[in-house]
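Annex B, item 7. Sequence and structure tokens for protein A, then protein B.
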Amino acid sequence: MNADRGPDLVLGANSEVGRLRAVLLHRPGDELRRLTPRNNDQLLFDGVPWVDRAQEEHDIFAELLRGHGVEVLLLRDVLTETIEASGAARIQGIGAAVNPRRLGHALADELAAHLRGVPPEELAVVLTAGMTFDELPFGPSGTSLVRRMHHGGDFVIDPLPNLLFTRDSSVWIGDRVAITSLALPARVRETSLTDLIYAFHPRFLGVRRAYESHTAPMEGGDVLLLSPGVVAVGVGERTTPAGAEALARSLFDDDLAHTVLVVPIAQNRASMHLDTVCTMVDVDAVVMYPAIQDTLTAFTIRREDDDVSIRGADPFLEAAAEAMGIGKLRVIDTGLDSVTAEREQWDDGNNTLAISPGVVVAYERNVETNARLEASGIEVLRISGSELGSGRGGPRCMSCPIARDRL
């Protein structure tokens, strides 16, 4: 990746559908090879993926985006460049990964000292893929009880298999980036990597923050930029009411939004984020899981002088259309019958990535949803996701747009 920002590339986004110019992806790597039937649930995967095939599928996804004029930044490459560029980034990344409370000070100090001297590319692999006790690069120490009592295959540094879903750990709103606060232990450290990338990589120097990761839980998959100035935030399994309110107040303070719709969603695995049940596919259209179409509601938060007003809860589709200043939001649902709709929602049929108004990337396996999108005038670019989808995430989950044309 070229570290110099192109003069014609304006970072940021004010919608979900403006033409996509640059995106941050993470090509699945050795962190997925750490998944076993014993730990996959804890690490939030529904199975043990075939990693080589997942990489092939991801490469095709990235190449499809490049073929449509999108610059693709790969997280591990960007992380390596960040560590090369900044000693502070190296120290920050090691500090987040090496936990003295878990390892004890003796082992933590020894490991941190070692990692401070490894090449940037090797450190980037350790920070993303983790490390086991068997992989410690120095001999057993008689002073570390932790090392004596752990099994060799236990993790000294936990892997981050969910880095694949780059949407969650950061999200651009206007010309600022929000570093999110991930709710579940398996994902907490992901934001330490996006934090140091946006703080120290030469391409992002001077970028201002819209939200800080130390605030209440809020994840990027719950954030939809419905239109310029209008943001929807799902509240459920991952984003809390406090996180949604903190984001709303931050956006108002920075003039990045005038209306935030807070949308309660079911707190379960199938609908972990708002974008698992609803995503934008055009300036006035969403693809939506039909089981929630008539029951989804929203609290409308608006800026009022030095404070905010809160109204609702009202039907989501009506509140969204009103906030967007349009008569009606077009809805394309994901199945003709409840069984088909439920299957395709589980398989990320609602989780599309728009690369321009009316053009989306979707998993090919969602045959019914894709047909309904095309019947509604949406162009669907299909990719395979048989292995990528084992972590329950589709093309939108796997992508963090860092530059879109403004609407």
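Protein B:
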Amino acid sequence: MDLSSLNPEYLQRALHVEAPQSSDYDLNPEARPKGRLILRPASVLVPLRDRGSGPSVLLTRRAARLKHHPGQISFPGGKQDEGDASPLAAALREADEEIGLPPDRVTILGQFDSHETVTNFLVTPFVGLIDPDFEPRIDRTEVDEVFEVPLSFLIDPANLQIHQFTRLGHQRSYFAIPFGPHYIWGATARMLKALADRLCEV
């Protein structure tokens, strides 16, 4: 797996590898609520760019003032609104709103396995190439920071960790990818693992 440069054809092949849906419950199957869950549609954009030193992924740190998941690391994206024509349209709209990324500056390569969250969303991740010279325009009501992480770092199995926390007397495990001062964990880390698994299969 050579990631010294961004190869769209390689990435497209990886996105067509069949793989199961991932879930926040993958490491804690006993915590899944009983019965059929009603999952609300959401989608995210996994923005990739290469400025000559290899592909990197743009990630956001959610605003600390937000009610849900404040300060967490995430991809641009969110729930699908009634006015969105498709999950992809929702991901592109949210990326435009959150970091000022116009849809016409994104080349979509494909999508990969949807991810079920403990907050009852079914998130579809789309991978897109963005202009190397794109400069984020952050909506401070939603995002505190935009930063880049080398794709090679994010998909290296040596950097994927399993951490635990205890809540209401129950221990829960989750995936985490620490990167400098940034702590990538939960659904974002699990989706990155899903992408890494696909890239390793090609």
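Comment on protein B: The helical segments are 8-15, 87-99, 151-154, 186-201.
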